[in-house]
């Protein structure tokens, strides 16, 4: 699975990508990501009037000589970005062709690689109806190895409770950062509270909803006993063309609800069918949405 | 294309099993989903049942049935009938059965076949050829040889017989006998197709001849009168109506009636011939048609016949009455040594008839006496000599024997019985003081039953056991044959002549004496008609007819084989089962692909 997760050719294609962080971000270690907070780096940001206590090394003497004004150069403060990948490993992620969990694991591995490659700290936490033990954000290729091993052995089990899992994550991680939420987002008990909590804490959240093609367009008909994987609840249904139309309509409504909610709080949202190329998601859609550059 | 093991097609019934299994699948399939709440608002689709049915009868079922069919056909051994370029050996089989005597628009059917055979021989000039005459008795006319002239002469010398059709098994056996499997071309020239499974068989069919013939003829004597009733059934196997006369003759008297038959229909006529003593009868229809072989049929009559007893020694009215007591036999007792009434031939001359039973009473027979012999207080020279009379006693049965059937031996009383000298190993049935009083033996020339006491010295004359004993004796001996078993025989049918006594002469329907008939035990007639058998016991007619199969219409038995091109080689089967097996494998792979494509893994 490691070859599937980290295909060398695929990694080479990812080499030039890095995460974009918009808005103010408070990192506690230096990194490669620019922060609106002025700081010390090689990248010039702006001038401002000198104020007592400013470091005289940053006074622009050339400007003072020409304009007789004491201005202090400010520079972009470069911080490291903790990237956390929250991965839904509930039993429903076992479905789909290809399986949703496999697709999510590949995506998580790719995002982790991008983070490590960009000198960011990267962590991964699986969750289902609760937050499972994971890997806190750390630097380095060694962390990448830990992440790959974790992703390779992920079991799909348990129910889905996004709100509870995200609450636990917020309580567990005291540091905000870039949070990727990967899962099918099919949670009858809701997800709004957990996502809002993340954003309120200052996390930059990206939601990727992963669905199997057969979930979007079920290729079945006949007398079916439709069984929910996680709860084993089932119902008997005569499924034909009209029933499938109703299902698709219901799914569209559910997706639209999620999209509207995320748009309302300016969280990027991506619907990723598992039969869609991962490269297309990363290279085009993430870049178009300003998640990657 | 043909099938080498066509019976294997019965395995096609396994397709029913496929269909059964298809419909026995679980009615509802499990379909796993991530979120049931998305489906809970979905209403049941009324069209889904039809969709289910459509799916079940869909492409998967068709592919599975197609796979089953292809496998079964592959097992049945499909083969292309290929004609090879070179003929190495050929057999020309000419139908010489009676129906080939029919005359069609082109002349006699046999002549047509003969001309075709000659033509084929010329085509096969450089080939090893055998010629077989094909009828109930297959005959190799020319063994495999490349001598075309000899083969042509043999074909020209052939004549149709009066026999019935041959069988495919007989022909196969004959061909194997003369050529093994070497004949790669077998040309059958006939007037009707035969369902014969011979590789390389080509059937040439002569011009069809429509036929009307007698398909049943029977005569009987009702009651005790001398009238004879005849039953004649006529079948019109022609496409045109038939109207004509049906006649029955006993040689001197003729009765007839008219009959009208629609095309392909049959009807029967009943005719009565008054006061006739004849034994042989002839039925005929007029006008005759192209096949006269079944326009005339022959039958013999079953008449009651006497059971002849020749008596030696003083008469005994009690024994005579006992012999006549059985109503199943018309027993005639000849006391004077004269010839009893018997059959007469057409010339009216009386014939000597051997007795069915010789009875000796209070006398001694010569040692040369043969046949069925009953000794009543009588001796047989050298074999059974009666001695002085001795006092009788209690009668005891020694064995269970058919001669003692229904007899109450305990009721028998014997006042005197003679001493015995036996020159042969006899079976004692009843004894008095260990001395046999009823014994029997059989040797090569006679069967003997001996009652040694004088009838008058026993209570037999006033006992019911005497007629029972007489019945048992007559049953045990049997009698000379009547015409009961000789009613209607077909040409070439083997007629057993056992039981007539020595056969003296057999005359064919033309009145000619058959050479070598004296002493014969069977008769195999070569032509239809009435054969007269002269034997020791009398003179008997045997009716011989053309086999009924020859009256069958020639059409509809089988499909005529296509005529081969001139000079073409034999037709040989080229097995193509592997192609069907490969096709079945492809269908199986297609079925698997379709299955994986249209049925989600979690719904299987």
In the CATH hierarchy, the architecture of the largest domain in chain B is: 3-Layer(aba) Sandwich
CATH fold-level assignment of the largest domain in chain B: Rossmann fold
Main sheet characteristics of chain A: 6 strands, mixed
- CATH H-level name of the largest domain in chain A... which superfamily? von Willebrand factor, type A domain
- Major β-sheet of chain B, in short? 8 strands, mixed
The total beta strand count of chain B reads 36
Count of DSSP H/I helices of chain B:
10
Radius of gyration of chain A: 23 Å
* Distance, first to last CA of chain B: 40 Å
Which residues of chain B form runs of ≥5 with pLDDT under 50? 337-352, 480-486, 555-568
Number of distinct helices of chain A: 10
Mean pLDDT of chain B: 81
Q: SSE order of chain A in H/E notation?
A: HHEHEEHEEHHEHEHEEHEH
| Oligomeric category | heterodimer
Helix-strand category of chain A: alpha/beta
Radius of gyration of chain B (CA) equals 38 Å
Describe the structure.
- The complex is a heterodimer of chains A (293) and B (604).
- In chain A, the strands form three sheets. In chain A, strands 5-4-3-6-7-10 form a six-stranded mixed sheet, sandwiched between helices. In chain A, strands 1-2 form a two-stranded antiparallel ribbon. In chain A, strands 8-9 form a two-stranded antiparallel ribbon.
- Chain A contains ten helices and ten strands.
- Chain A has two domains: 2-22 and 81-288, von Willebrand factor, type A domain (Rossmann fold, 3-Layer(aba) Sandwich); 33-79, no CATH class.
- The two termini of chain A are 27 Å apart.
- Residues 22-32 and 34-40 of chain A have low confidence and may be disordered.
- In chain A, strand 4 and strand 5 (135-138) form a beta hairpin.
- By secondary structure, chain A is α/β, with parallel strands linked by helices.
- Helix content of chain A is 37%, strand content 26%.
- Chain A has helices at residues 2-5, 8-14, 61-67, 100-117, 141-152, 162-172, 192-201, 213-216, 241-264, 278-288; strands at residues 33-49, 71-79, 82-88, 121-127, 135-138, 178-183, 204-211, 222-228, 234-239, 269-273.
- Chain B folds into four domains: 2-79 and 577-603, no CATH class; 85-209 and 554-569, Rossmann fold (3-Layer(aba) Sandwich); 306-477, Rossmann fold (3-Layer(aba) Sandwich); 483-545, no CATH class.
- Helix content of chain B is 20%, strand content 34%.
- Chain B contains ten helices and 36 strands.
- In chain B, strands 19-18-20-22-29-28-27-25 form an eight-stranded mixed sheet, with helices on one face. A five-stranded mixed sheet of chain B has the order 8-7-4-9-10, sandwiched between helices.
- In chain B, strand 11 (212-220) and strand 12 (228-236) form a beta hairpin.
- The longest helix of chain B is centred in the C-terminal third of the chain and has 22 residues, at 577-598.
- Chain A binds chain B through residues 92-93, 95, 97, 100, 184, 186-188, 214-215, 218-231, 233-243, 246-247, 250-251, 254, and chain B through 27-52, 55, 598-603.
- Strand 8 of chain A pairs parallel with strand 2 (29-33) of chain B.
């Amino acid at each position: 699975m490691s070859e599937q997760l980290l295909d060398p050719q695929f990694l080479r294609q990812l080499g030039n990508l890095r995460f974009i962080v918009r808005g103010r971000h408070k990192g506690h270690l230096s990194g490669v990501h620019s922060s609106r907070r002025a700081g010390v780096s090689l990248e010039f940001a702006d001038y401002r009037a000198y104020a007592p206590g400013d470091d005289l090394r940053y006074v622009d003497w050339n400007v003072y000589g020409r304009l007789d004004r004491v201005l202090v150069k400010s520079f972009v403060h470069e911080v490291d970005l903790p990237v956390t990948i929250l991965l839904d490993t509930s039993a429903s992620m076992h479905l789909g062709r290809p399986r949703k969990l496999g697709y999510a694991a590949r995506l998580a591995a790719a995002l982790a690689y991008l983070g490590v490659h960009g000198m960011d700290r990267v962590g991964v936490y699986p969750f289902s109806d609760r937050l499972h033990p994971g890997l806190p954000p750390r630097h380095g290729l060694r962390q990448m190895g830990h992440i790959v091993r974790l992703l390779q052995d992920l079991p799909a089990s348990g129910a889905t409770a996004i709100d509870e899992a995200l609450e636990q994550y917020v309580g567990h991680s005291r540091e905000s950062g870039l949070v990727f939420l990967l899962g099918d987002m099919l949670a009858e008990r809701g997800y709004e509270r957990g996502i809002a909590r993340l954003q309120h804490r200052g996390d930059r959240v990206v939601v990727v909803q992963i669905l199997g093609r057969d979930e979007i367009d079920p290729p079945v008909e006949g007398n079916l006993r439709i069984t929910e994987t996680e709860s084993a609840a089932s119902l008997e249904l005569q499924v034909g063309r009209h029933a499938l139309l109703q299902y698709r309509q219901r799914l569209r409504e559910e997706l639209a609800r999620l999209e509207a909610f995320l748009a309302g709080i300016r969280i990027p949202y991506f619907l990723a069918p598992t039969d869609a190329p991962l490269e297309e998601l990363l290279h085009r859609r993430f870049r178009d949405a300003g998640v990657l550059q | 294309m043909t099938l080498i093991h066509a019976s294997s097609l019965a395995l096609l019934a396994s397709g029913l099993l496929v269909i059964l299994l298809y419909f026995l699948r679980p009615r509802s399939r499990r379909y796993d989903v991530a979120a049931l709440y998305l489906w809970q608002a979905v209403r049941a689709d009324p069209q889904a049942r039809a969709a289910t049915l459509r799916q079940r009868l869909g492409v998967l079922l068709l592919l599975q049935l197609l796979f089953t069919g292809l496998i079964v056909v592959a097992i049945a051994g499909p083969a292309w009938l290929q004609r090879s370029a070179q003929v190495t050996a050929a057999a020309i089989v000419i139908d010489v059965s009676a129906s080939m005597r029919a005359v069609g628009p082109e002349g006699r059917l046999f002549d047509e076949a003969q001309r075709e055979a000659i033509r084929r021989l010329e085509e096969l000039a450089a080939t090893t050829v055998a010629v077989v005459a094909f009828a109930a008795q297959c005959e190799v006319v020319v063994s495999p040889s490349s001598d075309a002239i000899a083969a042509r002469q043999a074909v020209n010398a052939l004549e149709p017989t009066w026999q019935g059709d041959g069988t495919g098994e007989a022909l196969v056996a004959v061909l194997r006998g003369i050529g093994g499997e070497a004949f790669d071309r077998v040309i059958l020239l006939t007037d009707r197709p035969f369902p014969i499974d011979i590789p390389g068989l080509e059937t040439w069919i002569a011009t069809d001849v429509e036929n009307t013939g007698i398909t049943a003829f029977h005569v009987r004597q009702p009651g005790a009168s001398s009238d004879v009733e005849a039953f004649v059934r006529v079948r019109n196997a022609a496409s045109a109506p038939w109207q004509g006369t049906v006649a029955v003759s006993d040689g001197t008297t003729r009765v007839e009636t008219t009959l009208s038959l629609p095309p392909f229909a049959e009807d029967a006529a009943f005719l009565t011939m008054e006061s006739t003593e004849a034994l042989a009868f002839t039925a005929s229809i007029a006008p005759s048609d192209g096949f006269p072989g079944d326009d005339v049929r022959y039958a013999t009559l079953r008449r009651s016949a006497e059971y002849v007893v020749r008596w030696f020694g003083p008469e005994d009215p009690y024994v005579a009455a006992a012999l006549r007591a059985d109503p199943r036999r018309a027993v005639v007792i000849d006391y004077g040594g004269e010839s009893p009434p018997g059959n007469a031939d057409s010339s009216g001359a009386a014939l000597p008839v051997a007795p069915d039973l010789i009875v000796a009473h209070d006398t001694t027979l010569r040692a040369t006496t043969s046949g069925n012999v009953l000794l009543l207080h009588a001796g047989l020279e050298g074999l059974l000599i009666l001695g002085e009379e001795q006092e009788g006693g209690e009668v005891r049965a020694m064995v269970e024997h058919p001669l003692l059937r229904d007899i109450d031996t305990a009721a028998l009383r014997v006042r005197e019985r003679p001493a015995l000298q036996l020159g042969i190993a006899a079976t004692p049935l009843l004894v008095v003081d260990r001395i046999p009083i009823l014994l029997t033996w059989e040797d090569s020339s006679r069967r003997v039953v001996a009652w040694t006491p004088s009838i008058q010295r026993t209570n037999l004359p006033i006992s019911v056991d005497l007629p029972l004993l007489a019945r048992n004796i007559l049953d045990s001996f049997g009698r000379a044959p009547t015409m009961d078993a000789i009613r209607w025989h077909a040409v070439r049918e083997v007629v057993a002549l056992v039981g007539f006594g020595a056969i003296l002469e057999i005359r064919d329907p033309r009145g000619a004496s058959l050479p070598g008939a004296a002493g014969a035990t069977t008769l195999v007639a070569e032509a239809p008609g009435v054969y007269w058998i002269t034997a020791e016991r009398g003179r008997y007619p045997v009716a011989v007819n053309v086999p009924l199969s020859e009256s069958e219409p020639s059409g509809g038995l089988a499909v005529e084989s296509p005529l081969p091109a001139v000079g073409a080689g034999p037709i040989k089967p080229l097995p193509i089962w592997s192609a069907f097996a490969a096709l079945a494998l492809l269908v199986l792979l297609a079925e698997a692909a379709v299955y994986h494509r249209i049925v989600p893994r979690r719904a299987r």
